[in-house]
Structure formats: C-alpha cells, structure tokens
Amino acid sequence: MKKIAKITTLALCACLSVGALAGCGGKTEEVVIWGGAEDQTLLQALVEEFKAANPDVTESIRVEIQDPWNAQSVVAKDPEAAADVILCQNDHIGIMAKSGLLAEIRDGTAATFASDIRSNNAEATVQQVTYNGALYGFPLTMDTCILYYNTEIFPETLENSVLGSVDLMLNYPMPDISDKEKAGSFGFNIGDGFYLNMGFFAAGCTLYGEDGTNVDACDWNNENGLAYLKYAAQNFRKSVGKFKSDDTKNLATAVLNGRLGACISGAWEMKDTFKNAEKIKYRTLPTITLNGEEKSLVSFSNSKVYVVNNKSEHKATASRLAAYITSESSQLRYAAERGYYPSNKAAQDNTAVKDDPFFKVIRAQLEISQPVPVIPEISRYWEAAKALGSSVYNGSLKGDTTSLQDALDKFVDDLHSTL
User: What is the number of alpha carbons within 13 Å of residue 397 lying toward its C-beta?
Assistant: First the structure.
C-alpha cells in the first residue's frame, strides 16, 4: 500500500529493490499482497500472470509472507502498514468488517466482483464472506478436517471397521516403537477450537445457534454436551496413553513416522507434512459412543479468503488482483499444487477435482460439516475452547459430573461475555 518516494541519488537507488528502482525517476505506486509461506511460489506465479494479462495496471505488485491464521491481529495493530490484498480465515471477516478494516466488495461500472462471488462460489463460502448483508471477501478454498492414518499400523482393510470408530482405534493393539514405548493409537489437538467442537456437534450441540448467528445460543452445557465431555474425560486424557493431543503438524509427523496410528487434521496436511506419502491414507471422521449410540464426529468447515484492506489507496487494482487469484483457473492451480479444495463451483466440478480420491473424501466431509461462524463474537470462542480442551487433556479438569458441568457452564459464560 505504501508509496515509494522519489529517490534522487544513484547510491540510494542501488540499495532498493528492483520494483523500487523503477521509481527512481519518479514515484512508483505499489500494491502488496499477502499469502502463506507455503503458497509463495504459486502466488508469485499467479501475480506475474495477472500482470501479463492486465497491462493497463500501472502499479507494481509485491508478494509478502503472512500467515493467514493471524492476519486479522496483524492488520488490526496497524492497518496502514498492512497489505492491500490480505489472505485470512473466514472467521476473521466479522470482526474485521465491524472494525472498519475491510473494503466492501461491490459491483462497479466495469466490474461485477460481488455478482461473480455470489454466482460462482459454493453457498457456504458466500455466507462465510458476508457480514450484515454485505460482501467482504473473495473465497479461495473450502477447508475441513479428516482422519489420516498410517497403513503400516492400520491396514486399509480396517478403514470401514476399526478406523471408523474412535473406541476401536483406542483399543487396537499398537506396535512397539522402542523397548519401553508403544505407538499411540489416535490423536487430535483437543486444545484447538477447530477440533474440540467435533464431539459437541456429534452430540447435537450448537455454537451460536443453528445458523451460527445467535450470540446467546451456545448450548454446550446441556445434557448432551455433558455426555460428550464425560466421554472426553475418560478417553482423551494424556494419562490414557493411546490418545495424543498436540499441534496438528506434530501429530501428522508422528503418524508419518509410525509413532501414532491416526490423527485428525486439515486437507493441507496431505501436501505439506505427508507429501503424498503412499503409506498415508485418509477417510471421513470416525464415530464415538455417546449414551450407547455411535455418533459421527462433526467437523468445522471454513474457508481461506482474500480481502481488500479498507486503508488501501489502490482498491480497484487490489480487487482485480484478488478476483484473479481466486478465479476458477487459479483455484484449480491451488487444488493441484497445494491440495486446497476449491470454493468455485465450476472448479469443484472439474474432473481433476471431482474424480480425485482425496478430494472426494474432503467433499464428503464438507457435506456433513458445520461452518465456522462469521460473527465477531467467534473471536471469544478460541481461547475459551483452548482452556477447556487443554484442561481435559492435562487432567486438571476432574472427571466427576459436578466438575464437568461447572467447566461447561464457565465455558458458555465466557462466550457470552462482552466483546
């Protein structure tokens, strides 16, 4: 977003980047776009293609690394220093829009940005970039989590039996990984709100109501929520031994190395940690047993989206760039090179996506997932979920009914506190 001032001496010009050198004879306008570290090669290629396809764009374009998971907090600290085009998670949309950090995406006299977003993308992702009826983002992906497993520990013949049940995985005999240690059976990051929800949703609980917009409607402290927390206290403590909770990349690495049989993580794991390893397979989420009934774990779904900084001095070019980076053809590139499931409906129906075995599992899980709410109040959920899930795993939360109910009541109260 920043303007590069005119440089009058050759010595100073020599210290600048190639992009800035173009401005040594005058003022260069610049558009900055953020993307994750793993996406840099593809993003840079797409930017170069955008420039070639749009010779009328006079601004230079610079790609910078910024993790989408914390982009919201970085922008909030100094909006004017942030990029013009920002990759973030959809749950950032509400609080960023409410704070005035995002430019509303509209149609113009020569552009149909808003209409194209609404007509070209899956309805769930359109909802995930909408706040108070206005659009604030260009959807790029649809994300959820699935079960990955190591076939050297869990043969593929067990996919529809043992691997379909958390209870059976935790009771499966694990191989030795050292003289004194056996491999763990199953794991997920119970201290991360993106995964803690799975059992509560399986039990029939809702977060901020059925449609995720009612700030007073979290019911995790009802009898169904209590049933799941009892299950978690019995099965997902560190002391159980066979269950492991950790950062998802650490869990995935343990599965790859044969120290853990299976873990739950996002679609990105297949291209990153696993690097398409042949011994790593995948399936939709398994079941747990609540009150004598098997219930399938229900994942969150979210999306990565590109937004335009409301402080940008180049909103028109920023919007054109965001639209190009999230177009059907670009999303197919992200699918092929990064393993991201597209939000664009035509890209989803492309045979490269539609017939891909991995994407078939992602699509099946997405169909039974619950979208992460967009309302600003979702920002209160993550820390409260971390505290609750971590207390289960480390054993600081006692397993008696009174302690579990008190913990759930506190969790719900924390979600209802003033934003």
Answer: 28
* Residue 416 banded pLDDT, cuts 50, 70, 90: confident
Report the alpha-carbon distance of residue 44 to residue 191 in Å, rounded: 34
Q: Would you call 397 helix, strand, or coil by DSSP? A: coil
Closest alpha carbon to 375 in 76, 85, 96: 96
Residue 2 has pLDDT above 60, yes or no: no
Contact present, 377 and 218 (Cβ < 8 Å): no
CA angle at 167 for the pair 161 and 170, rounded to the nearest 5°: 100
| Residue located via tokens 């209870």 | 167
Residue 320 corresponds to which tokens in the numbers above? 């054109």
Looking at the DSSP bridge assignments, the partners of residue 64 are 34
Q: Please tell me the distance from the alpha carbon of residue 290 to that of residue 313, in angstroms, as a whole number.
A: 54
A 10 A CB-CB count for 133 gives 5
For 261, list phi and psi in degrees, rounded to 5: -75, -45
Q: What are the counts of helices (DSSP H) followed by strands (DSSP E) for the chain?
A: 18, 18
- Could you please state the CATH topology (level 3) that the domain comprising 30-142+302-371 is classified under: D-Maltodextrin-Binding Protein; domain 2 (3.40.190)
pLDDT in tens, 224-262: 999 999 999 999 999 988 999 999 999 999 999 999 999
Single pTM value for the model: 0.89
- As a whole number, mean pLDDT of residues 276-302 equals 96
Give the span between the Cα atoms of 125 and 280, in whole angstroms. 29
Tokens 């949309």 locate to: 93
Q: DSSP of 176-231, one letter per residue? A: BSSSS-B-EEEE--TTSHHHHHHHHHHTT--SSTTTT--TT---TTSHHHHHHHHH
How far apart (Å, rounded) are the C-alpha atoms in residues 262 and 418? 39
Is the alpha carbon torsion for 236, 237, 238, 242 positive or negative? negative
Fold match flag (30-142+302-371 vs 145-301+373-416): yes
Question: Pairing mode, if any, of strands 287-290 and 293-296?
Answer: antiparallel
134-137 LR contacts (CB < 8 Å, sep 24+): 134/97, 134/104, 134/105, 135/104, 135/105, 135/106, 136/93, 136/96, 136/97, 136/102, 136/103, 136/104, 136/105, 136/307, 137/88, 137/90, 137/93, 137/102, 137/105, 137/305, 137/306, 137/307
Structure token digits, residue 25: 């004879």
Domain ranges of the chain: 30-142+302-371, 145-301+373-416
What would the mean pLDDT of 289-314 be, rounded to a whole number?
A: 96
CATH code, 145-301+373-416: 3.40.190.10
